[in-house]
Amino acid sequence: MSDSYDLLVIGAGSGGVRAARISAGYGARVAIIEEYRVGGTCVIRGCVPKKLFVYASRYKDLFELAPSFGWNVGTPGFDWATLVANKDKEIARLEAAYVAGLERPGVEIIRDRAVVTGPNSIRLLKSGRELAAKTILVATGARPRIPDIPGKELGITSNEAFHLDRLPRSILIEGGGFISAEFATIFSGLGVATTIVYRGERMLRGFDEDLRVGLEAGLEARGVTIIHQTDVLGLRQTGKDITVSFSDGVDAPFGAVMFATGRSPNTSGLGLEAAGVALGEDGAIAVDEYSRTSVPSIYAVGDVTNRAQLTPVAIREGHAFADTVFGGMPTAVDHSLIGEAVFAEPEVGTVGLSEHDAATHGDIDVYVTRFRPMMNTLSLKSDRMMMKLITRAGGGEVLGVHILGPGASEIIQMAAIPMAMKASKADFDRAIAMHPTAAEELVTFKKPSYVYRGGVKQ
Fold this sequence. Notes:
Layout: E1 4-10, H1 14-25, E2 30-33, H2 40-45, H3 47-65, H4 80-103, E3 108-110, E4 114-118, E5 121-124, E6 130-138, E7 142-144, H5 158-161, E8 170-174, H6 178-189, E9 193-198, H7 209-221, E10 225-228, E11 232-238, E12 241-246, E13 251-254, E14 256-259, E15 263-265, E16 298-300, H8 311-325, E17 340-342, E18 348-352, H9 355-358, E19 364-371, E20 385-392, E21 398-404, H10 408-420, H11 425-430, E22 450-453, E23 456-457
Parallel strand pairs: 1-2, 1-6, 2-3, 6-16, 8-9, 8-14, 9-10
Antiparallel strand pairs: 4-5, 5-6, 7-15, 11-12, 12-13, 17-18, 18-21, 19-20, 19-22, 20-21, 22-23
């Protein structure tokens, strides 16, 4: 077997797999090096299993709604072991599909850990093989960030949450981002007494304020306790519980503690700095618009660059890399308009500028509506759905769309398409509403709820 390649990819996650597969399709001799499982964080212990768990948690709400539609479902029961086993089967199926997708165009899969030893060389730590390549692509993703506090080893992260032997009676989740919101939804929906502690004033920093307020209200209505402006100072084992010491002087016991305090790029131990690859203060690999590092033969895509830690972004970057380097089509990824979804309860979908940010870009009109989802109207559930459309003044270009409630992620995906085409409010208005749907609200707004003129709300 030759040890010389056109491309060596380190990391078989979403970005690396796409880059390897497309590059091989262009005729390159490619090997991908992965020390764990093919598929990366998203497939193995991220967005895919997480959404399956979110689906499981939502059955609680469906069972509560069923009687209003005439269904008698008796007393529902839940078995954690069954969910975990079925999730594992699906992940194994997806991993096999990823492997087949690599092998079909001839990508060699090397199960090992790689260290970059030069601009065109890699050493495999397990086998000791020395590999050479014209181009190296680093796509090693990111890992959960764990606070450096006493007793940190007693906590878990999203990695371990998918493999718990049993559900805890209670859980404390530290963090105010989408991972915290999603796992709070999962655990509370499955019957675990759930508490979130966050050092900030409100969760989802950087999101539109109405989304932030609505998410917290929805989580609290679901039974989640949210503690703001408080840090976790330490953990200690007390019998079967973990006692948490908070910065406000309170100590409290929980069945489990989960850290959801962000993710750090996986660059440690890769030999990148010795090879001359420039890293940022957070350990992220610095790249240009074509994902090239400070070393011309070494590129990086995905979470390891910390441009946007989202799977679809990594896939797009991986494909653009292959087009650029092996397809003869230099392609830069536009990161200026990236939609986001938070699979919490309530669900969040957002694309474009928040109201706060849009108001700094000139005069804007803001359209807002709140209503009970139709599914809830036969019951006593009072949950509200929120939709917001932000445009330039006078019904101009749509700058932001923000949705809170059922199906938010599916709706926002479609809204992102006309926004990428610089659609105006008039373009939205030309679409005939599909009734009765929630999404029709985006094309039936008549007058702004309020406006900003000169940066002042009126």
